[in-house]
Fold each of these.
Amino acid sequence: MANLRDIRRRIKSVKSTSQITKAMELVSAAKMKKAQDQALAGRDYADKLNKVLVNLKENTTEESHPLLEKREGGKELMLVISTGRGLCGGLNTNLYKAVIKSATDETEYVTVGKKLRQTIAKTGGNIVTDWEVADPVPFNDAKPVSKFLTEKFLSGEYDKISVAFNNFVSTLTQTPEVFQLLPIESEDLGEKQDYEGVDKGEIGETDKAAALGADYDFEPSAEGVLDKLLPLYINFQIYQMLVEARASEHSARMVAMKAATDNAKNMIDDLTLEYNKARQAAITAELLEITTAMKAME
Amino acid sequence: MPFQLDIVTPEKTIFSDSVDDVYLPGSEGEMGILAMHSALVAPLQPGELRYLKDGKVEELAVGEGFVEVTGDKVSVLIDLAIGEDAIDEHQVEEAMKRAKNALDGVVGDDPEEMQALMMSIAKSEAMLKLKRKRR
């Protein structure tokens, strides 16, 4: 039977840990709500943007814009969006697994969030640059990132640009995903942005049908529109992925912290039981000693 | 005849209802759209968006983006859309001053930076213009 004082000390330490995890759970829950709303709000825009782009692709060819051009050679630059802080369950580990799976030795990285930056640096990946993004994600924070990536692609330094991020499905589910950003592929445009996860099927299909049915005029010209639209599209994609990643982070952290708080509670219960047993045993032993002593004196 | 108008920014859907007409600041000049307009995609520049709903004209200052018109629906995808009462004149003036100062600081070798600043000045101007119109 463990020492009474030791048990008491352990109960105390578990209790204070559970207070911390509880507080973190509450903070994450509040932030999660905001981040999820932001992610969901962006999907309207994503939907509409996609619909227009699908239709634009019908009216243009691959050569009509450098951002659509497929190149030989496989030098790849990957943007990895991880979290700035830990304590969010297996979120970063799962993302890292997805990164390793799709990356080659040639792949170079740019990162957002320091968790995977550290991991990639440790395992010898070549990190070109990195950014921090404020919370909640401001639209303007996506601009330098997309500008940098677009420039790298257009200058021919890299032939392919992809993004690894945690796609927010629900509070309990986040899936790591690697998405090819550049060159923009036509087959991507139709069906993707299943960022949604929830309502993807229906909306995607009706929109596509509507888009294909209409025959658009372009003002001033299809190329002119493409020139404006594609940079906007890339910029927005990056923003949406940042927001999705952020929503995933807060959700994962809240769930992880909730689990930790629950575990701590169970542990306190077990320890209290053990403590009471030990206390009772001690009392019994003491009584026994007294009675024995009394008997001996008779 | 009313038709559906959606104004969407990346942050949220600003407006989604049926209107009688809408005027937009297109990159080639202002354009008006009524119901049954032919399908169209066009870029927009910072300026003023006007729509008529229930006999009342509503105005918004808008930023950069584009408009998509299909048979019965007009979608405006824009990076900024703000009503007159939500504009803080003082704040916008400050932002504009900052952008102008930054513009002076840019040496002529970075056209993109310059363009971005011009864009933010144009947006500020659009907001101020709307704000001051009623006086």
Amino acid sequence: MKKTMKLSIKRLAGAALAASLAVGAQAATLKMAYDSDPVSLDPHEQLSGATLQLSHLVFDPIIRWDQNHQFEARLAEKWERVDEKTVRFTLREGVKFHSGNPLTSADVKWTVDRLIDSPDFKAIFEPFAEVKVIDDRTFDLVTKEAFPLLLNSATYIFPMDSKFYSGLDAKGQEKALLKKHGDTYASKNASGTGPFIVTERQQGVRVEFERFDGYWDKKSPGNVDEIILTPIKEGPTRVAALLAGDVDFIYPVPPNDHDRIRKSGNLDLITLSESRIISFQLNQERVEAFKDARVRQAINYAINNEGIVKKIMKGFATPAGQQSPEGYVGYVDDLKPRYDLKKAKQLMKEAGYEDGFSITMMAPNNRYVNDAKVAQAVASMLARINIKVDLKTLPKAQYWPEFDERSADMMMIGWRSDTEDSANFTEYLTACADSVSGWGQYNSGNYCNEAIDVLVKKAGSETDPAARAQLLRDVERKLYAEAAFVPLHWQNLAWGVSKNVAAAEVVNTMNFPYLGDLVIKE
Amino acid sequence: MLLFLMRRLMQGLIVMFVISIISFSIQDNLGDPLRELVGMSVSEAERDALRDEMGLNDPFLTQYARFMGNALQGDLGQSYFFKEPALDVILAKMPATLELVFAASLIIILISIPAGVYCAIKPDSWLTKLILGFSILGISVPVFLTAIFSIYFFSIELGWLPSYGRGDVVPVFGGLETSLFTRDGLSHLILPAISLASIMLPLFIRLIRSEMSEVLHTEYVKFARAKGLKKARIYFLHALKNTMLPVITVGGVQIGTMVAYTILTETVFQWPGMGFLFLEAVNRVDTPLIVAYLIVVGAIFVVVNTLVDLLYGLINPTVRLARSGQ
């Protein structure tokens, strides 16, 4: 601990000299360890948690989610709906990019055009027609049809410095080039409006950030002027680094180490319920019995979700009976996890499968928290209703190709809604598979109910929030009644921090902490 | 000598060629690299288009021929994750790994020789029993357990040493950077080096002990004793020299193995070397990097074995290099 302090003081002195007046008296250094570091400095290269975490440090969105799941004004100071396809935004005055260029509506247009073309983000921005620039600080976001999730999608707009990314780089490539596997300018250089500038980056080893002294948000309480991010892959090592005082902010914390951090005198454990649903899908094309709703219900009744959460997840998850977590528009309060072994056996008997059958099951073993153990537990629970499970668990790199092939009768999938909205779950997981619209892309169960698809489509253009919620709740009820899939639980998120790091105020269920506003106490 | 080196070079090239075929042919079973490059919601069609663009849909022979063509010009492909030539990425991480292996070897040499010799000279002393007892423990405890325990003990409980990573580095000749000469660097190096050494140390203590006790029973040692030479001279000059021959042979092979073992040690300590890099590459299905790593490690094995054979000839002039190269 002593050593850490000494180091940070040394670093502080250096930073203070360099930035002269800009550094306040309480400025502090945050040393953090994640399990991975961002693939690229290009915010559009990959839609992943690490990219979004980086985007919130280096770039700033026009609006963002606050901790209560409401929209918070960022670069856009206000917005209003003009008609059912258009929302008009006004940018804040005097916002500057790291390069010194001023932020204008043209930058927003440039960014959205790039998003619409990017392989990873085009799905989110597919409903968008264009950005109409009205003047330097005003622009209209226009969708092709009436679109209720316009603001949800707008949280993905992190304006990039269009002047900075224009022209050719030293290799003669366009600076704006977006390429997955290429050495592009944008993947190594960044200019956003965010609170931090990347000062040094050794991929896979460390990333250093320094606070941007021209940051527009002068009201932010944040006093972190330097961040050192180290990826530490191994859970025990990450926890050890926190316990030893070598770092003061870690994510994720393996469930087995929660107690140690909680009991330690100078550390805090912060947990939040994440919106990622962990579930199993029952492949009806491979197994005749899964076409029978009674068999699917029996499986739901045979699996003890609460037991899994308690025993395997150590309480570090919320048992689920539906796709939407609490707080989502489609969430229905009375759809509880079902567990009743007697009823399960009876349903199997009614369906004519009293003697059971054999199936294959696949699950990843390094993708979700305790994924392989959860799959083992489910397999042994199914044995009690005479379903014999041949389980295979694989590393995620090999699991996804198998999932694409639908190569087992029961497959595990975890899903987080990119739009923070209920419809997204059905579109990807339980809608009839359609290669043109892309619906049902992760529906390895081949479950298909046209009536449900119609409801979700309707919700896609319903701009009245109350009517829309009604539609999406209907969807959840229908899926529950038909036991379309097997919901298990929503995972939790856990951060371990030193007591003087006031992280609870800046973390959120989307898992991109707003570190620009983080306060480190003396 | 020259003939020997030429032969070795040929053998090395064949070994590397075989490694490249094997590693290239297993890459299809490692998973889909595209999955690691794109987000979950990207459609199959989109992924397939990217796969086409990257040439991953071509038949095996086409891909291999392209790889070989580039490899002959020194280009082992571009890492998907680092977006830089795979060979450059590995060479940039190599000093950290070699530093770790060097430090571990040093620990092994400094401890195993005196300990092994002592055990041979005084087979019945309590210290011998203690050393041998410890070495059994050392052999049976896996390296990641040693590593985690040492982190727990020295970093968390005692707070003496840092828990992860590599410390400050200083440049030495030719832009090479090392942490061997800074206080911070050394403090970061101690735990990983000890953990890595713990795998081989027991083996060497036992090897030296058994070789030494054999040598101590030979006629020339008895003769030296009868002649009244000083004990230290007998043990450390005459006996040890002959003990070292098999030890060096084994040592050469084991240094290669140790490079392989860095995969575990580096992962636990987040040591930014090429072993950790390799494991990450496997997780990310960064196939060009995996292939390049296997070829580079193959090259290290060949070079180390050649050096050992040369050294062998120096210590034991009766060995003729040309023959041992066959």
Amino acid sequence: MTDLTKLGVAAIRSGVANGDFTAVEVATAFNANVAAAKVLNAFIVETPEKAIDAAKAVDADRAAGKLLGKMAGVPIGMKDLFATEGVQTTAASHILEGFLPTYESTVSANLWKAGAGMLGKLNLDQFAMGSSNETSYFGNVISPWRRNDGGNAALAPGGSSGGSSTAIAARLCPAATGTDTGGSIRQPAAFVGISGIKPTYGRCSRWGIVAFASSLDQAGPMARDVRDCAIMLEAMAGFDPKDSTSLDLPVPEWEAGLSGDLRGKKVGIPREYRLDGIDEDIAKMWDNGIAWLKDAGAEVVDISLPHTKYALPAYYIIAPAEASSNLARYDGVRYGLRDLPDGAGLQDMYAATRAAGFGAEVRRRIMIGTYVLSAGFYDAYYTQAQKVRALIARDFENAWAQCDLILAPTAPSAAFGLGEKTSDPLSMYLNDVFAVPASLAGLPAMSVPGGLDKQGLPLGLQIVGKALDEQGVLNAGLAIEERAGFTAEAEKWW
Amino acid sequence: MSVDKDTVNKIARLSRIAISDEEADKMVGELNGILAWVEQLGEVDVTGVEPMTAVIPNHLRLRDDVVTDGDVREKVLANAPAREGSFFGVPKVIE
């Protein structure tokens, strides 16, 4: 029998539906891979019995001739930012260690309803704050990829959805959920040679997702190819009255609408993204991407997004400001860790709990956020950042007069080594330079593999689309996928 | 604008995060590095620009003013670190 863990979402779904294999066989195969890959540290909690139970239900439904869901028989990894009823949900933090939600997030509930099963909860940067998965309380996730220099340097899987990216690249799951606040789906996807899409802000409900920066947080799928992303996004998205910013719109049939024919489409190439000193492999991959889109029938035009350089500094005011407010809920009273020093009062308990429960990066961002929102500084920092954010969104609006989609690299480099950027928070932040603008504007954006660099590591191409045009983004992603011929995989060492 | 150690201690207090003297010293440099970098936003001409309030045009919905949940006391208390009966336990606040 074929190795079922080599299959993606679409192949598993049709194989189960056709009776080529059972959902239980698929879940069993992935459970075995998960159990054998502990050294990668991709999972915080493994739930093999949940995967089997969901698979049994799908097999029973098929036997009974019932209509199967969009994700029927597909076991997935769930980023540990989604609340899962009765299964520990930590946001990779000490402060939520042992937290057992009494409710299920809307997105995960949608996936279970569609027939998916849960292999476990995936590691991430603590509260999704990080670009390398090095801020998790539960330890670093290690990328399955290694440089081709013969060394065994451990590489970052990207962040914050680093458990998701590693698990998919190492074939511990065919697909996983991610969340993207400033690139946390796209950058990890790029680092490990898989695909991932952040839909338009509001497509996927935020209800039950541990909040980081609510005006930016958006869930999306990560998977091996564009079709699998389209299938899973359909299952995840949809209006939810429990999220005040949820879009009250029908979910398009993105999978049925997939087409790599881009005739009549105009693709903009933003000149401000061609940074001085851009990595030459990145520049070459970008040029390849332009050629592939032309080959698919698109017309390529030069565009300008003049406020690009201000996106990152604006993001590092807005996101910490929202985080400082969102994370005020962790007080050691209602759930999570409590640190009560001898004789301490309520205020001391709050301060001790939060010092013990939050990691260094989370504390840093809460403090920055508190500062930029404090009396006397609010206008100079926060209001100014929100005005700049409006200008960044306007840049995109202006660009849409000239083009339908934008093509750029996902990240300025391939995966870096663990520990290489941890001493300087700013150098870590700069890794999100290409990802953050689309987040600030709430636009759909996707990363697809674009090739390998000189070190033999994957690089990602990013497509940004107009609000609500996930179809255009997916189609351009498909056109690239069909031409890039990306089949490279990390050689198994774990 | 730059922060000194007193300001860092004040921010930590406002954030309800206990920090040691050494941590405060270290934080002065880190915060100043980040603040110096974000200060480049000051050079952007924002004359006549309204601060963004919503990325995707959307109106806030109102629902009917009816009870939609409740009766879930056990669920609410299930993760309490120091439950006392049907309440959240906290250190003594009133002398």
